[in-house]
Amino acid sequence: MTTDSATAARRPGEQALAALGLGAPAPSPADASPHTFPGGGRWRTEIPSCEGPEALAVVLKESSRLDVPIHRISQGSGVWMLTDAEITEMVEATAERDIELCLFTGPRGTWDIGGSVRTDSRGAGLRARGHDAVAGCVEDAVRATELGVKCLLVADEGVLWTLHRAREKGIIPADTTLKVSALIGPVNPAAYAVYERLGADSVNVPSDLTLDHLTEIRRVSAAPMDMYIEAPDDLGGYVRMYEVAELIRRGAPLYLKFGLSKAPGIYPYGNHMRELTLATAKERVRRGRLALDLLARHGADGDMAPLGSRLPGSLNRFAIPS
Q: How far apart are CA 202 and CA 204, in angstroms?
């Protein structure tokens, strides 16, 4: 059920503009999402692009300093770019604070030898090319979950379905959550519902979707949605902080991802990019503080899901063949 604050959240400048005779029409209750996370709450937070233990330590320190609550921390370079010791250190550090850690799985088309991704059409994009690429993603998933990782980031529909089946068969733990990458995010409600049925527990959508697009998605699916409130330049560089209350109203249950525009890409990460990676990790947390301050000013900060919550609730799935 939609909460009072979800339907009554103010929009930026509303009171001042109304006093000048420039007020906007009242938002329609019909376009608000009726969904919440299990256990309550309409939004969670995520700090993306946290590429190793050192960057994670920076994020955790800065989040404490700025009082930024974190539900999930994600990494984009991939499981294969981390040693077992590094993964274990990240698992332990996030577990101490009851934060979900999400690592990207395996080979992806943009790093493959295939030339189609470098054409104007971008070909198959991030998807896993061939059996061996799928196998690499599965190997990453098994390795990461054996080391205690409970959330996996995927960029291929076949990998998603395969890992969902692996989860159902007990090859990876049943409580592993699967997150669809923003790099293949769906742009219509039909596609969004398909990702849910393939096993997605949260789905990144492109940050250029309109508010009406979010409402359309919420009419067919309650699967948690991830959205960059500020997107990296390679995803458009959009900055939508002033819309954050309305994004929650339309898109809940929603992960607010605090990305960073005007910053060079850092995937795949290595020590040659250390200073940039640590500086941008710190600034992502600050961007989160700015967005949370806006939520408070707009009267929409009261519906955060409890810290430590991570599961998506009951979702619709395709039947798995016996």
A: 7
- The predicted pLDDT at position 94 comes to 97
Q: What is the mean pLDDT of residues 301-317?
A: 94
Residue 2 pLDDT > 90: no
- Taking 3-state DSSP, the helix, strand and coil percentages for the chain, each rounded to the nearest 5, stand at 45, 10, 45
Distance CA(224)–CA(61), nearest Å, equals: 27
Residue 45 to residue 136: CA distance in whole angstroms: 29
Question: Which is nearest to 66 in space by CA: 91, 47, 87, 86?
Answer: 47
Question: What mean pLDDT is predicted for residues 294-311?
Answer: 92
User: Burial, 54: exposed, middle or buried (Cβ in 10 Å; 0-12, 13-18, 19+)?
Assistant: middle
What was the pLDDT predicted at 119?
63
Asked if residues 86 and 57 have their Cβ atoms less than 8 Å apart, the reply is no
**pLDDT tens digits for range 244-254:** 999 999 999 99
CB distance 141 to 155 below 8 Å: no
Q: How many of the other CB atoms lie within 10 Å of CB of 62?
A: 19
What is the per-residue pLDDT for 3? 47
Distance CA 86, CA 84 (A): 5
151-186 b/e (C-beta count within 10 Å ≥ 16 → b): bbbbbbbebbbbbbbbbeeeebeeebbbbbbbbbbb
Given the DSSP bridges, would you call strands 151-154 and 177-180 parallel, antiparallel or unpaired?
parallel
User: Token pair for residue 267?
Assistant: 């995937």
Find, among 53, 87, 95, the residue nearest to 70 by Cα: 95
Report the mean per-residue pLDDT for the chain.
90
Angle at 267 between CA 113 and CA 97, to 5 degrees: 135
